[in-house]
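[stage:ingest] chain + small molecule (flavin mononucleotide)
[stage:ingest] validated
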Amino acid sequence: MGEKISILGISGSLRKGSFNSGALRAAVDLCPDEAQIEVFDIASIPSFNQDEDQDPPAIIQEFKDRIRAADAILFATPEYNYSIPGVLKNAIDWASRPYGQSAWDGKPAAIMGASIGGIATARAQYDLRKMMVFLNMFPINKPEVMIGNCGDKFDAEGNLIDEESKKFIRQMLEALIAWTKKIK
Ligand SMILES: Cc1cc2nc3c(=O)[nH]c(=O)nc-3n(C[C@H](O)[C@H](O)[C@H](O)COP(=O)(O)O)c2cc1C
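[stage:predict] done
[stage:export] tokens:
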């Protein structure tokens, strides 16, 4: 048996009871045996400053190393003002620099998102897809995991309790694994 496919999970929310971090924890539990998801916490990533991109803080080097070591990336993003949160964009920008040394280059990816609204992070997800064009990442197209009106789909600790959403997450992971194998 070969090694497991490694997926790096990144939540775009720093909130303690975050629905998106809860969805990512659910993905860790639902992950098929042939893969494993490790989560990178972006909370300690400082604000991007291009003056530092040739000699970035140690946490950025660690972040880039973890991205490079992963076979695929899984983003769980909230929607803030119709796009992805600034903290997630900031983390993406750091790992894309310096020019020509992006850690994202060529990575298969999947996106999911949870929102208290009915549009269910669709606008944020499509913004993230747009970024992936320039980053030269390869996101799966389907299934799109958009967990809308999510207040009652998580328990008081932010754990996902909605079976339908879990089913979509499982299908998304299966699609990501198949896609990762295909383009590897
Ligand atoms: C600054 C800000 C902007 C927001 N903008 C949107 C939005 O555009 N669309 C939406 O569906 N929800 C929006 N929300 C509500 C989020 O869906 C909600 O806060 C959600 O819990 C964030 O995800 P999290 O639980 O993972 O932190 C916004 C929340 C904040 C704090």
